[in-house]
Specification:
38% strand; 2 domains; mainly beta; 539 residues; 5-stranded antiparallel beta sheet; Hypothetical Protein Tm1070, Chain: A; 5 helices
């Protein structure tokens, strides 16, 4: 074990030890229910760099069951990259958030998106900051309209403005801070202050520089600023934890009010200066505060770890054992939990067509729906090019429907508005683990045989889609390190084993309402050449 690791200290060398493979709990078990998901408090721990998927370490996403205190690791991964003078990052800037049925690992320079049903890494997206705020990140709860109802706040991410680049690069030890001069994201809006630490939102609000009192949170106490904010929908406000307890801040008409309730940690070591809170989360399902903290020695190192929950209504406290796995002690740096189940499930079918092709062929598209749920469902179908026009399909329990020449069915093609290519968006009732299945076949008749040939296109979750970002272009640790340095592109492997018999077609669709710049690169590692660049218009 690496005992006595100082909070905020970067360790430059770690002994490598080969240990037995860790088997993730729950393999082969029944699919989870949404309620079982809500019972859990999800955590991420400090990570051991360069540890592979078969090594016995703490890396990844963990969950503790709030009802019985049992632990399980849901997804093994580690996130590292080489920046600055010290080459690796230990995960202590990683912050967990929730968007619907997705767990978001908030980091820099990109966020990682995990599907909570399969725990598959489904996407990696840039940290939502503009280019002129290099290194800044806003970490905290990701809140939607249902959660914020009655508060006057706009949907978005709420938290503290932090110089993440400063933290992960370690250049503050030798030179100027990379986030200076002050360059806060232009869309970062001031919400209110708590003990000199400012709350912000990434909604469309002006930044009031005059209100900034604590704009750069790097210090040995940095994690105690980043990972202690959570939202209480029933109470209509935020909980913020410090080293001695938790305070509740109500929100009204979009304004953060003064602390209206205080939950003191009146027990050792948090009732004195030796107690230090690292991460905390208010768990709506159980109504309890979950907190991880340390006992610090006079030299600034820790010699004890504490993980506990408290009911703020009656002060009832429960202490939990931490998992003991690997040579790095389990050190949670962020927690989150799932709220209400989403109401709607959105998907995108990226291409449909009705158009002539080579060699006197004519291509058309058939669409299939299947409802795997025991409940009926309604599907709203809209085109990307004309999103205001909606078609409706009713599917009974376990029902299916086949729609031939779907582009004509939605008003395109030669018999409609003349559109030859389009994409479709589907919105259906949310069915946890039993979502609507949508797939299409783009095909043409084979006049020589009387048959047909073509290819299948399946719908993907919207707006997340799926990506193959989960790849490190090195022979070791492939598909395990999900955040390696410099690998920010999506990879498509081309197969040339049978030259002349197959070709590779690439389709692009922009489903947003803004232009999208796209670059296509050819090659591997150093041999990369720009072959195509385009500003892809909306639709």
């Amino acid at each position: 074990m690496v005992a006595g690791l100082a909070r905020g200290l970067r360790v430059l060398g770690v002994l490598s030890v080969v240990m037995p493979a860790f088997l993730t709990a729950g393999v082969g078990a029944e699919p989870p229910t949404w309620e079982s998901l809500q019972k859990g408090v999800f955590l991420t721990s400090m990570q051991l760099m360069d540890s592979g998927p078969d090594e016995d370490h703490n890396n990844g996403i963990w969950v503790i069951d709030s009802t019985d205190g049992s632990w399980a690791r849901k997804r093994a991964f580690y996130s590292s990259r080489a920046i600055g003078l010290i080459g690796f990052f230990y995960g202590d800037d990683g912050h967990l958030g929730i968007e619907g049925d997705r767990l978001v690992y908030e980091s820099w320079p990109s966020d990682l998106i995990f599907d909570a049903f399969s725990w598959r890494l489904v996407n990696r997206v840039p940290t939502p900051n503009p280019a002129d705020s290099l290194g800044w990140a806003l970490q905290g709860p990701i809140l939607d309209e249902r959660q914020l109802q009655g508060t006057g706040l706009e949907p978005g991410r709420y938290g503290f403005a932090q110089c993440i680049l400063d933290d992960v690069s370690n250049v503050h030890h030798w030179g100027p801070r990379p986030c200076d001069p002050l360059q806060l994201p232009g869309g970062l809006g001031f919400i209110g202050s708590s003990d000199g630490v400012d709350f912000f939102s990434n909604g469309d609000r002006p930044t009031d520089i005059g209100n900034l009192q604590f704009h750069d949170t790097f210090s040995p106490m940095r994690s105690a600023q980043a990972h202690v904010l959570s939202f209480d929908k029933a109470g209509g406000g935020f909980w913020r934890t410090d080293d001695g307890g938790a305070s509740f801040f109500p929100v009204s008409d979009g304004v953060l009010g003064a602390a209206g309730f205080r939950l003191d940690f009146d027990f050792e070591p948090f009732d004195g200066p030796a107690g230090a809170v690292v991460a905390s989360h208010y768990h709506p399902f159980s109504g309890r505060h979950f907190t991880f903290g340390l006992h610090l020695t006079s030299s600034g190192f820790f010699d004890e770890r504490y993980f506990f929950s408290i009911d703020p209504l009656n002060g009832d406290r429960v202490d939990y054992d931490l998992p003991e796995l690997g040579i790095l002690e389990f050190y949670p740096v962020s927690m989150t939990s799932f709220g209400e189940m989403p109401e709607r499930f959105e998907q995108l079918l990226p291409i449909i067509a009705e158009t002539p092709g080579r060699n006197d062929t004519f291509w058309t598209t058939d669409l299939w729906f299947f409802n795997p749920s025991a409940q009926s469902t309604t599907v709203e179908v809209s085109r990307i090019t004309t999103p205001d026009q909606t078609m409706t399909v009713e599917l009974p329990a376990f029902g299916s429907r086949h729609i031939t020449n779907v582009l004509a069915w939605v008003g395109g093609g030669a018999g409609g508005d003349g559109t030859t290519h389009d994409a479709l968006r589907f919105v259906s009732d949310y069915r946890w683990g039993q979502q609507l299945v949508a797939a299409a076949r783009i095909w043409t008749a084979d006049t020589d045989t009387g048959g047909s040939f073509g290819h299948v296109v399946t719908a993907v979750p919207y707006p997340w889609a799926y990506s193959n970002h989960e790849r490190w272009l090195r022979e070791d640790d492939e598909v395990y390190n999900v955040q390696s340095a410099g690998i920010t592109v999506s990879h498509v492997d081309l197969d040339f084993r049978v030259p002349g018999q197959f070709r590779h077609n690439l389709g692009l669709v922009n489903s947003t309402d803004a232009p999208l710049s796209i670059e296509i690169l050819w090659g591997y590692n150093e041999a990369v050449y720009l072959t195509y660049q385009s500003d892809h218009p909306e639709g």
